[in-house]
Amino acid sequence: MTATNKSDMGKKIKPDVLTLVRKNIVDMKPYSSARDEFKGDAEIFLDANENPYNSDFNRYPDPLQWKVKEKLAPIKNVRSEQIFLGNGSDEAIDLIIRAFCEPYKDSILITEPTYGMYAVCAELNAVPLIKVDLTNDFDLDLTKLLNSISSSTKVIFLCSPNNPSGNLLDHKKIIGVLDAFGGLVVIDEAYIDFSASKSFTELLSSYPNLIVLQTFSKAWGLAGLRLGMAFASKQIIDILNKIKYPYNVNTQTQELALKTLGDVNKKEQAVREIIQQRSILASELLKLSITEHVYPSDANFLLVRFKDAPGTYKYLMEKGIIVRDRSKVRLCANAIRITVGTPQENKNLIIALKKL
Ligand SMILES: Cc1ncc(COP(=O)(O)O)c(C=O)c1O
Prior knowledge:
The protein has twelve helices and eleven strands. The chain has 356 residues and is of the alpha/beta class.
C-alpha cells in the first residue's frame, strides 16, 4: 500500500477492503456451529452435544453476541453489524493482523512508544513490523510516518490516547493518515472515555478502511471479564467474525456486559472521579523533588519522568506499591507509568514517595 502525495489527500479512491484480505481467508469456509445453523427458540435442543441437565452454563453462548451488540449500538451510535466483540480488544488486534497480512510478506506500521500487543501479534503471525518514532511530546510525525509506509504495508496502528504516554494524538494528523493511506488504519481508543475527544467511530462512514478499537477493561471497569470492541464497516466485521473462534465471548461475560451497559451513569461517575484524581495526583507528583516531568494525560494513568526511575520503582515495590517502569521503552528514559487509583491509593503513593 502506498501513500498518495499531498495534493491527492482526501481524494484518494480507496481499494475495496475485501481486496486487502488474505486470499486463503476470502476462500475459506468458516466453521458453522450449531447455534449458527439454528437461531431462535425451540422446545428441545439436541443439536450441540451439550449436557441436558440444567446449570447456568450448560448451553453454548450466542456466537455473535447479538443482545450485547443491540444494547451497545445506540450507545456508540453505530449499527449492530458494525460491531465485533472479542476476548478483550487484544483478540481483535490479533484477528486484524491475521485476516489482512500475509506472513513474511505484508507489514504493519506502528508508532513508538505504544501499546505492546501490536508488535507481539505481528511477531506471532510472522508479519514484519515498521516502527516510526513519535515526536518528543509523543505526537505523530505525519511526514515521517507517511514516508515510512512501504508497498507491503497493510495496516497502521495508532493508539489515541496513547499508551504509555497518555496523550491524544493530533486529530488532524490522524485524518492525514486516513486520507493518505490505502490500507487499514486501526485507531485504538482503549482510553477514549477519559479524554475530551470524540470517538473516530463518527467517521466510519467516511473511511471504509477505518477500524476503531475500544474495550470494557478501562472506563467500564470490567478488565476481568475480557470483552473488547471493534467498530468498522460491515464488510470488515464480517471478516473478523469469519475467522474468530466460534464461541469467543462466554455466556457470563455477555450477561454481565448487558447488565453493565444498562448503567451508563455508573461508568460516567467513575470516569469523572478518575479524571479528578488524575489532576490531583499530577499536581502532587509535580511537587516532589524526585519528579522531573509529569506528561499531560487524556487517559487513566500518568507517565512521569523521575530523576531515577528504576530506583523509584524498586523503592515503591518494596513498599507494596506496584507501578510500571517504562524506562527501557523508546523515548521513555526514566519514565514510570502510574495508573490513577482510588483517592486513598493515590494518597498512599504520594506519602511513600515523599519519604524517598
Ligand atoms: C491501548 C490498549 N489497547 C488495548 C488494550 C487491551 O485491552 P483489552 O483488555 O480489551 O484486551 C490495552 C490494555 O492495557 C491498551 O492499553
